Amino acid sequence: MTTKKRGLAKGRGLDALLGSIQKEKLQLEVQSLDHGQLKQIDVNLLKRGEYQPRRFIQEQDLQELGASIEKHGVMQPIVIRPIDDEQHPYEIIAGERRWRAAQLAGLTEIPAIVRDLTDQVAIALALIENIQRQDLNPIDQAMALQRFHDEFGLSHQEIAETVGKARTTVSNLLRLLTLAEPVKELMQQGLLDMGHARAILTLKAKDQLKVAQHVIEKNLSVRQTEQLVRDFNAPKQEKPKTAIAPDIQQLTQRLSERFSADVKIDYNKQGKGKLTISYHSLEELDGILNICLSD
Q1: What would the pLDDT profile of 69-94 be if each residue is shown by its tens digit?
Q2: pLDDT tens-digit profile of 245-257?
Q3: What pLDDT digit, counting tens, does each position of 97-148 carry?
Q4: Is 27 found in the same domain as 146?
Q5: Domain hosting residue 164, numbered range
Q6: Of 183, 242, 248, 263, which is the most exposed, with the fewest CB atoms less than 10 Å away?
């Protein structure tokens, strides 16, 4: 059974969604400052948000937050909406960590802002609230961004506009979802960062975990990881190639950063050669072409 997308009409649909999100965010800011509008909700009446992008929460982080809540209370209210569920009549839109930590602290109630939200706005707010948190790991960010495409059919550019990120950042994050599952789990646990992952992406799926584990064991830097991947990808019986000139290396690096894509420059002694820009999706190709044409 396939899941039906909540598609948006081109242009107007996105504008309407963005308008609704902005309106709700302003309303939430007002309510969070007005303690008279907050409600104390029984923690047992709440359920985890269906569109919570965070898949991995460090137990130590929860324990530390729980200790802080036990001492100071919940400093920021959670955001919830009423749902048709007799046992758990409220769904958490933002604040699952606070809810879980509050229970560890022994609280029976938690301050909350109750908003009657449509599915579309609830999904968007839940995703945006978590994407914009600095402690959300890159894989969970990427999964949240992918939900915008799956739920609303948004392009990379439209997703970028919705969450307030650069299109290249969105594309780079979404590429991480093509990593082998065990490698993604390592990223969710905070053992690999995005720089390591982007280097490992160029390997075949069967080799990614082996290299990732080596990177973790040896505590390699991103530069060392990139060199390891180059060595791993090099043909085993091929004669050593002539060292690449420093200026060509610098140019390759600059172009790679400019296009957010893999760039390769091949040349011979006569100065002839070719420039290759690799892309992984039509969205990335559109981004590369836009940069070329704008320049």
Answers
A1: 999 999 889 989 999 888 999 999 88
A2: 788 888 888 888 7
A3: 899 999 999 999 999 989 888 777 787 787 777 776 656 788 988 988 888 8
A4: yes
A5: 12-173
A6: 242
CB-facing half-sphere around the CA of 96: CA atoms within 13 A: 21
Single-letter residue type at 24? E
Residues with catalytic roles: 96
Is residue 269 classed as helix, strand or coil in its secondary structure?
Answer: coil
Let me know whether 165 and 36 are in one domain.
yes
Same domain flag for 136 and 278: no
Question: Do 219 and 133 share a structural domain?
Answer: no
* 6, part of any domain: no
Burial of 45 (0-12, 13-18, 19+ CB in 10 A): middle
> Could you give the CA distance from residue 80 to residue 90 in angstroms, rounded to a whole number?
6
* Same domain flag for 77 and 130: yes
- pLDDT for 242 equals 66
| Residue 181: CB atoms within 10 Å | 10
Distance CA 101, CA 61 (A): 9
How many independent structural domains does the chain possess? 3
Helix, strand, coil tally for the chain in percent (to 5): 55, 10, 30
The answer to whether residue 1 is domain-embedded is: no
